[in-house]
Each structure stands twice: as C-alpha cells, then as structure tokens.
Amino acid sequence: MDATEKKRYGEMVKAASPGSTVGVNCLKAFLVGGSICAVGQVIHNILMAQNFSRDDAGLITAGILIVTAVLLTALGLYNKLGKHAGAGSVVPITGFANAIAAPAIEYKKEGLVLGIGAKMFVIAGPVLVYGAMASVLVGLVYYFVR
C-alpha cells in the first residue's frame, strides 16, 4: 500500500467512524456513578438514624447495594444501564457484583460446577488476583521503606 492509498484508507475510516462523544460519556458516567453512591449514602444515613453503628450501617449498606445489583443483573437491567453509563456503573461496588453475577447467570444451564462455579469469576477473577498481588507488593514496599 503506497502513501496515497494509506491516506485514502484513513479518510474512509474517519468518515465511517462515529463521532467522539467523550464529554457526554464522562457526564453520563459521573451522573450514574454519583447516583449509585448517593443512594448508598442515603441508605447509610437511614441506618445510622436507626441507631446502627457506623460499621454495621456500612456492612448493611454494602449488602443492600450488592443484592440490588445482582437482582438488576438477573433482570437484565444492569447491563442496559452499563451500556449508557460506562464506567459509572462499573466502578462502584454494584459493578463488581454485576461482574460476578452476569457470568454466573449466563452459564447456569451448564450446571453448578462447570457452569456457575467455573464461570462466575471469569471477569472478576483477574481483578481479585491482581488486586491481591498489588496489595502484597505495596505492603512489602511499605514494610521495608518504613
């Protein structure tokens, strides 16, 4: 391919590619992620007003958000939200619950062991592994630097 053909090909790709909507995508992610976190804060505040300890209120809030995300995943609603919200639906605790529940639901027909058990951590597994490795490395660096 000579330079003229490369230039023409590049122009064709540019013409066929959709326009960038980075600003709109960032705004959607901010609004959805912020809304999820705001709902979590409201739940936490309600529990604190009911005289739960800060730790208990935090655990119950996390549990409610996780169960809600799994239910929305099972109903097919969380993935629709994710298509519009992008990282706004992935970053909070609900996104991690979705990452575990979605493959489990998708592969449930293959059985408990080879379906749900084997596929549940397809998406979240690498995050857990690398997160654990990173925490060990940071801990070692902290130990030796301190």
Overview of the molecule:
This protein has 146 residues and is mostly helical. The chain has one domain (22-145). Helix content is 82%, strand content 0%. The chain is built from 8 helices and no strands. The chain has helices at 3-16, 22-49, 54-74, 77-85, 87-90, 93-106, 112-119, 124-145. The longest helix has 28 residues, at 22-49. It is extended and about 70 Å long. The N and C termini lie far apart (58 Å). The model has no long low-confidence stretch (mean pLDDT 87).
> How many distinct folded domains?
1
Number of helices in the DSSP assignment: 8
Strand content: under 5%
Rounded Rg: 21 Å
Concise synopsis of the structure shown:
The protein has 146 residues and is an all-alpha fold. Helix content is 82%, strand content 0%.
Top keywords for this entry?
146 residues, mainly alpha, 8 helices
Layout: helices, strands, pairs:
Elements: H1 3-16, H2 22-49, H3 54-74, H4 77-85, H5 87-90, H6 93-106, H7 112-119, H8 124-145
Helix pairs in contact: 2-3, 3-6, 6-7
